[in-house]
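General statements about sequence and structure are easier to judge against a single worked case. No coordinates are needed to read the tokens, only the vocabulary itself. The sequence in question and its structure tokens are set out directly beneath this paragraph.
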Amino acid sequence: MPWFSKTGKLSKTDVLELTRRAAAEALKRICPEPRKVLLLPPDITRAHSGAGWITEEFYRIFTENAEVRVIPTLGQHIPHTPEQNQWMFGSIPEAKIHAHDWRQGSKVIGEIPAGFVKQVSNGRADWAIPVSLNKMLLEEDWDLIVNVGHVVPHEVLGFANHNKNYFIGLGGKDMICASHMMAACCGIENNLGQLITPLRACYNRAQQEYLAGLPDMFFQVVMAYDENGKLGHTGVYVGADPDTYLEAAKASRAQNITIVPPLKKVVAVMQGDEFYSTWVANKAIYRTRMAMADGGELLIIAPGLERFGEQPEVDALIRKYGYTGTPNIMKLWRTEPVLQDLTHGTAHLIHGSSEGRFRITYAPGKLTRKEIEGVNFSYADYEATVKRYHPEKLQTGFNTMPDGEVIYFISTPSAGLWSTREKLAGTAV
């Protein structure tokens, strides 16, 4: 069971008070006088959750008596710049923040057997998943490890956070690639909004078998839109066991899944200070695809968009093969060495395609028409798009434009999931 939880409309002051309570509980339950503390927050794409200032508060508390280090759980995302670290984590010194190196900074400590993978995926995947994790996590003698995160619907794991911090956020290349391809084979719409996806079941097994001895805890937040369309904290869940995740995920499922009729036109904004690549900005596709009407259009306004992948080789992969649908990508995967090596990128190409069912249009701040259309998306001029739609004036939900066009506006797609009731037939809401 969780150590404690609090629900309802929570202010920043409330969340900081709960942060201090969580720190006190950790000292009582895990280590009364920690010498070395590790903080594991999400990366900058979750900055809107307050994870940065929550981590800063944990740092302030523990640094009084301990050496405290921070590793943003980047996965294979590009490391933060010093300026981004300061923007997200405030007063935490740059020297105390360490970038996860998914290629060279991890080591294999075991595997999730192929037989188990095949069983939980109903035969869709039949390979072992190596358990490959950050060396600093494994090799340092930590007295306390604090995971900070935002529980929200997720395209790979059903809901984000909890042991995702370890197995993707601090995962090595071999683990990330095998995991993402497994999830893609299971189907993105079979993952979204599920409490325990096949991959989550694999991670739960790996946590039990390989990480049971870690002195860790989880500080998880849930957020939702209020009656004015403003995103705010609605729950904090603190503990050290799987039930802590499940309680938060159930709350997120109840609050973050919006049932809508099939939507013909969706306008979504991916914030320019968080989303720089389609690798992360495509969350707008993942979180709305179950709501899109056949033949509809998803228009994504992305002022910070400057690349496709988070690394040069994945950027090149996306530019070469494009978001061309599952049948084509799976066919290429069987013959193309680069798609077999970078299977997390292969999975991303599958997730980012509409399968020809609806149109995806990007209005990017920094990519050209040729680049956008080259990966099989439609292009809209950024300046003309924001002049027409004025996102700062739109209300979350349905809006009617002066010329009579009806759109559905989403200001922060990464904070929820939108679906028709029929698409959620297998998910209790």
Summary: The CA atoms of residues 156 and 183 lie 6 Å apart.
